[in-house]
């Protein structure tokens, strides 16, 4: 699932493959840009911004893409067979003498003037993996709507950019609160730790092939994707429920014993009891 670390990796692959090279192939398979040809232009580089990708070309043009849930950029060597999906899922092809970058299932693909990039990313909060990272501003943004559930606030890219559904669930677990806890009810000490913890999780995973939030040998994640399986700390079955409205609803995982706060499931504990396991607890 594309989150800030996944997008950072995609940007790195694109940058290493294309930056400084002239395009010998340019193919946009969307109606709006079907006649656009960037052949001959030098690729200046690719930068991530939250979950957005900005590929810049000489002449002041930028290709803005967003992976959403199923999109991907794949890089292939000259003559290598494309394996990212069927041909009808290809939305963009950028080729140099040595590499070809193929964009599959890209739900957002837009060419714009580089000087106008703020139009598509200017609304984003501080980027957890970017040079603009500002923990104080991120926390202020999160606390600006104190009645909003923490999980929803973390997914709002206007607050801080880069957190997706996996990190939302994992961060709430590490903070010991449910994703439905109002942001304003988050204990002060944990609120102050949140920005640094979020940044640390994304930073340690941006170069890993498999995302990991635990320090346990056999398990990568504490709660995400572990519905009905024992909590790695206390043994209580992990629960899952939707959070959000309509098309924005996301499956959310939590431990009703280790995480204090409101729960959508009747009868879930509202306070945090002592752990019943001797498993080591990850530092918050």
UniProtKB/TrEMBL annotation:
Catalytic activity: 2'-deoxyribonucleotide-(2'-deoxyribose 5'-phosphate)-2'-deoxyribonucleotide-DNA = a 3'-end 2'-deoxyribonucleotide-(2,3-dehydro-2,3-deoxyribose 5'-phosphate)-DNA + a 5'-end 5'-phospho-2'-deoxyribonucleoside-DNA + H(+)
Protein family: Belongs to the FPG family.
Domain FPG-type: 222-260
Span list, region Disordered: 239-284
Protein name, entry field: DNA-(apurinic or apyrimidinic site) lyase
Gene Ontology biological process terms in this record: base-excision repair
Basic and acidic residues: compositionally biased ranges: 271-284
Signal peptide start and end residues: none
CDD domains in the record: AcNei2_N
InterPro entries (alphabetical): DNA_glyclase_Znf_dom_DNA_BS, FPG_cat, FPG_N, H2TH_FPG, Nei2_N, Ribosomal_uS13-like_H2TH, Znf_DNA_glyclase/AP_lyase
Example GO molecular function: oxidized pyrimidine nucleobase lesion DNA N-glycosylase activity
Keywords for the protein's UniProt record, in alphabetical order: DNA damage, DNA repair, DNA-binding, Glycosidase, Hydrolase, Lyase, Metal-binding, Multifunctional enzyme, Zinc, Zinc-finger
EC number: 4.2.99.18
Domain of life: Bacteria
């Amino acid at each position: 699932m594309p989150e800030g670390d996944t997008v950072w990796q995609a940007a790195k692959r694109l940058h290493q493959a294309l930056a400084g090279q002239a395009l010998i192939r340019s193919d946009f398979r969307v109606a709006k840009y079907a006649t656009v040809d960037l052949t001959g232009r030098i690729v200046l580089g690719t930068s991530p911004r939250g979950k957005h990708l900005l590929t810049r070309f000489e002449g002041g043009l930028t290709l803005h893409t967003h992976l959403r849930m199923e999109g991907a950029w794949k890089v292939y060597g000259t003559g290598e067979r494309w394996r990212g999906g069927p041909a009808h899922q290809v939305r963009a092809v950028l080729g140099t003498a040595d590499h070809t970058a193929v964009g599959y299932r890209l739900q957002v693909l837009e060419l714009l003037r580089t000087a106008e990039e703020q139009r598509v990313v200017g609304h984003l909060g501080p980027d957890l993996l970017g040079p603009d990272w500002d923990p104080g501003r991120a926390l202020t943004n999160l606390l600006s709507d104190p009645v909003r559930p923490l999980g929803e606030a973390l997914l709002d890219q206007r607050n801080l950019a880069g957190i997706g559904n996996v990190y939302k669930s994992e961060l709430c677990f590490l903070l010991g609160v449910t994703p439905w806890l109002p942001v304003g009810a988050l204990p002060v000490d944990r609120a102050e730790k949140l920005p640094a913890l979020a940044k640390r999780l994304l930073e340690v995973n941006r170069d890993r092939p498999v995302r990991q939030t635990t320090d346990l040998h056999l398990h990568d994640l504490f709660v995400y994707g572990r519905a009905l399986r024992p909590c790695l700390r206390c043994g209580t079955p992990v629960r899952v429920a939707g959070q959000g409205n309509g098309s924005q609803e996301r499956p959310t995982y939590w431990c009703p014993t280790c995480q204090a706060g409101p729960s959508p499931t009747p009868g879930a504990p509202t306070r945090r009891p002592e752990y019943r396991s001797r498993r080591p607890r990850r530092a918050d």
